[in-house]
Write a structure and sequence with these properties.
Elements (H helix, E strand, L loop, with lengths): L6 E5 L7 E8 L8 E5 L9 H13 L3 E4 L16 H15 L4 E6 L1 H14 L11 E7 L5 H6 L5 H10 L1 E5 L6 E5 H7 L15 E6 L7 H5 L1 H4 L5 E6 L9 H14 L1
Length: 265
Amino acid sequence: MIDLQPQYLDVPAGRSGARRIAYLYAPGTDKDRPGLVWFSGLKSVMTSTKATALAEWAAREGLSMLRFDYSGHGQSGGAFTDGTAGQWLEDSFTVLKQVARGPQIFVGSSMGGWIALLILRAIAGTDPMAAGLIPVSGAVLIAPAWDMTEALMWRQFPPDVRNELVAKGHFERPSHYEDGANVITRELIEDGRNHLIGDDSFDPGCPVRIIQGVQDPDVPWQHAFGLLQILASENVMLSLIHDGDHRLSRPKDITKLLQNVHALC
């Protein structure tokens, strides 16, 4: 059992204002292999089942492990309803630059897969936000919800929900995973359009492994399959789990995750 106390860092008052981010970092003992960085999904936290299982495995392997809560999530500051993809991407860049050391393997779940892909695209391009980032040795994406706000939210919303979002500025969406509802804001949707991958292919610059449940009600397997057309690399593999849901947190799902991470290490 890992017993780490969260540490905190401040994101400067940039595009989205100043905020405090909580993170957990175990430095590891094996300096010959890359460390791991965990990117959580929407409304998820750095102490989730998959993140904890990965951290415990990394500790046994002697690998460093970095995980954090986006602003408005978990132990970080801010309100969830103030958050956007751009803000959470900015959080991620800040944590990576200030904490990560040496080559890393990105592991992203759901929205975390989108965030990881946006960082890989920034590294491949000329985005100044990527300046000074650590090298990335590989990526494992679990039910990657790329372009989530547009493809999986806005385009799927019926007209009355779209009208409510525009008129009221928010919509309460029932949650499958917790009591109450997720509040989807108009700003979340509009800001998401500034960070779409769309149909523009790019070379991720590293091996990518995608794990997707066929029974996923939130990210259809066809959506994950679409990444094979976007990622301009021959070293991209998609594994379908035929009875898998969105969380992919069962013991056999976690075994599949660890096998993929181990192979990239």
